[in-house]
Amino acid sequence: MASKSKPLAIVTGASTGIGYELAKCCAANDYDLVVVADEPEIKKAAKDFEAMGAKVDTLQADLATLEGVDKLYALIGGRSVDALLANAGRGLGKGFLDQDFDDVMRVVNTNITGTIYLIQKVGRDMRERKAGRILITGSIAGFIPGTYQAVYNASKAFLDSFSFALRAELKDAGVTVTCLMPGATETEFFARADMLDTAVGQGKKDDAADVARTGFKAMMNGEGDVVSGWHNKLQSAIANVVPASILAEQHRKKAAPGSGGTH
Ligand SMILES: NC(=O)c1ccc[n+]([C@@H]2O[C@H](COP(=O)([O-])OP(=O)(O)OC[C@H]3O[C@@H](n4cnc5c(N)ncnc54)[C@H](OP(=O)(O)O)[C@@H]3O)[C@@H](O)[C@H]2O)c1
User: Fold this and answer.
1) What percentage of the chain's residues is helix, strand, coil (to nearest 5)?
2) How far is CA 95 from CA 140, 151, 219, 232, in A?
């Protein structure tokens, strides 16, 4: 007798950090996986998920491009996707005028264009089947103008907003949309964003496994959003009442190049 197949989850950016931990949450909860990242490290991560009992399809693709997302969609091959965890993203420090525009485009195309293109493709299938869960990794950065991280914070404001809107559109469709909003989390994010000399880059951060567990649980419960950690909850509550100009000045202190002092 054929064995019943497990539910399938797609996790983008599963090679490191929050995405790696989200994929582990899926494997621990009996999902099979399709995991994607841009660099070869994803193959090593996939072995960890397999060791937890998941059947894993692995793809190395640049999700900043429509072609990369198309490759991922082709790998799904018409299978029912029970959960889409759209997590891949990258930051970018320094003043906007000092950033390389190719790097700026990479942030926008990874965090926004590739993410929503994938969500539209998989979301249409979920709506057709009247079932599915979507988790989007936004950020509390989306509430705060990101002085010295302007494009990144704006990209997360886009995702936070998009997530709530899509959730409302799919209210009666059997598909839930959840926005995971972490605060500063211990991952490769700040090194990749060239922000290790900043106060936020050097400061205390949340544990990626804790953040992922919070997000996974909220997705399984069909919640609209979840801010991980009480200090981040406080920060996002304050951000709702403090003028944007003051938030932007506060952000300068955390993210300005050199704000972390010498090390
Ligand atoms: N760390 C924080 O403080 C923090 C706070 C709030 C929200 N977040 C969000 O959390 C998510 C995960 O970040 P993280 O902190 O876990 O950082 P991370 O350790 O750098 O992980 C980022 C993941 O995304 C993948 N990725 C990036 N660009 C990609 C692309 N163009 N195509 C395919 N994969 C790509 C990376 O794979 P490759 O290495 O192969 O490129 C990696 O697997 C991001 O959306 C980030 O904005 C992070």
Assistant:
1) 50, 15, 35
2) 20, 10, 35, 24
User: What's the rounded mean pLDDT across residues 221-225?
Assistant: 96
Cβ(233)–Cβ(124) under 8 Å?
no
Query: Residue whose CA is closest, atom 23 of ligand 1?
Result: 13
**Distance in Å, CA 256 to ligand 1 centroid:** 21
How far away, in angstroms, is 218 Cα from ligand 1 center?
A: 20
Task: Supply the residue whose CA is at minimum distance from atom 45 of ligand 1.
Answer: 89
- pLDDT bin (cut points 50, 70, 90) of residue 2 is low
Q: How far is the CA of 57 from the centre of ligand 1 (A)?
A: 19
The pLDDT tens digits of the residues spanning 90-108 come to: 999 999 999 999 999 999 9
Place of tokens 């994803």: 42
**What residues pair up with 85 in beta bridges, in sequence order?**
11, 135
Catalytic residue set: 152, 156
Token duo for residue 201: 């880059």
153 lines ligand 1 (CB under 6 A): no
254 CB under 6 A from ligand 1? no
What pTM value is reported for the model?
0.97
pLDDT of residue 261: 80
Count CB-CB contacts under 10 A for residue 254. Answer: 20
Q: Label residue 208 by pLDDT band (50, 70, 90).
A: very high
